[in-house]
Request: fold
Amino acid sequence: MTLSILHTSDWHIGKPFGRLDEGVAGILRHARLKACNRLANAAREGGARLVLVAGDVFDRPSLADRELRAPLEQMNVHRDLVWHIIPGNHDPAVAGGIWDRVRRIGLPDNVVLHLESKPVEIAAGAWLLPAPLAAKAMSVDPTAWMDKAATPAGALRIGLAHGSIQGFGSEHRASIEIAPDRPKLAGLSYLALGDWHGVREIGSRAAYCGTPEPDGFLDNAPGFALGVRFEGPETPPVIVRREIGEHRWLKRVIDGGRSSDVAGLEREIEGLGGQARLALLSVEVTGRVTMAEESSVRERLDQLDGRVLHLERLFDKMVPAPAVDDVDQLPEGNVRDLAGELAALAIDPANERRAIAARALRYLFELSEPVGVQKTGDPA
Reply:
């Protein structure tokens, strides 16, 4: 048999994005809703009529009813598709919780919420084995029941779960752990996973699809869904990435205030064209930077700020290292003498407090007005 599905998860509708300006946060929250339309288009392009959502549709249980209705309405628009959803750890199915509220609001006919761990036939010869979460954390593997779940001989067995594959991701113990060999133990044709916010295939029969809209400066390929095509229960499925994300979160490093690094970043943003206005950019300046280089970097970043949706500047790893010309611009006298002493300390590798001296020097320059050329008409 041949079957195509679209695998998505971690929509996190209602995510606050608290560290960003409210205007930017509002744009990003709306983009997560609009992603539903792009998911629907990706499903159709891949020949799929089934969309599996592996948990965390909502970011937290305390959302207003209006925020709960929004994704339901979006899915309802695409009535040629059937959306199969399980609760995740951000929106677990607890008594009186968010999914009870959703059911009172009313689920569209083409949205199926799975609250029980039992096989459900979702297409001729294809059975879904959902593992809904009823708590934010669990001490048992929510997919363990799949090993003994009965389905007809020759059926496609597709698992749907939310949690961390053991030994993958964080070094710390995960709140919900899933055995990495679950597909083999349970005879699954595919295990559709949610929780990790980037695309990651775990062998040939299990994968994380990631979040459809990036939500941080992470190096884990977010902004996708997975098109999965089955040719039969024994053949490994064909997994294809489908790009969904509207916004790009770009993290770049400028080392030592190098003009070439800044120029390269400027060319990259220019190359995005109109899409630059949808980008969020984090720029970290590291290494030894003269006062002139620092001033130039800050000015050029200010110019980039107007081209992107959001710009984050990180200067914690930058070490001010003034050149002789920098010090010479300061007024003669005690200020310049002090700056010279601090500059010498800041570049002395034997000085254990050179970082402190460098910071003090930067503050000194910020407080001091450089000697400028007298303008015509200025009082003598």
